[in-house]
# Entry
Amino acid sequence: MAPPGLEELYNEPSIHRAEWDIMKKIGWFTTARGPGSYGLFKTMMERVRSGDIDAEISFVFINRDVKGNECRRKLIEIAEENSVPVVMLPSDSFRPDLKANDMGAWRDAYGEELRERIAPYDMDLGVLAGYMLIIDPETCRRYRLINLHPALPGTYKGTWNEIVPRVAESDDSAYGATIHLCSPVLDCGAPIAFDSFPLEDLRDSLPGDELAPAIRQREVEREVPLLMEAIRMLVDEEVTIRGEELFDRNGRRLDGPADLSARVSSAVDGRQRA
# Structure
């Protein structure tokens, strides 16, 4: 069954199914800074183990040392329990002299080392999940990488703590998050899927100083099902990426990202009833 919203996205040209890329081996990139990153990986492993997502995690890449971080330690434990290799390359201690003098050159050097570290592992799709580092241009070009961005397609850029207050102060009627391709320009990759939810009930029921935290809380509770549904959509070939264009399972080009809002709402409602 096509994801909600895809029926309106069909465009005429199509590609032959044999040309499609199969995305079954996933590389997981994370800074694993807090419970959100840990929760995303934990849920992903549960969905893979249950067979709900027909894929495997080839490796986990972490750009920090453990350094007493409990969420990072627990994430590594889950990976090791499931025989998933963990690759660590602390960015905060990588070539500090170069970083101080030339950030662009440092990012390129870090990216080169990253690519060397992950080269032994197969990866059809890289998922950035709580990965707090800009990916260098060459890595973006070499691999298909997706990222979760806390804003709807074509709206706000930046981090959630920059975006959410702006949304609260705006007259926007809806907010949500986007799964997009990583690109050398921050937050400018082609959108693949998104989740949108209305803000009217929050605006009507909450005072101004409580609005931004409530918006963020609602967005966070929908992030996990959005990412899981987007990954499953790609793994099951409901939507396929060719370059920066999207195609449905019959090879028809889509005019825009998949609207997964109904699926996400269903997942959230089911979790709340459980």
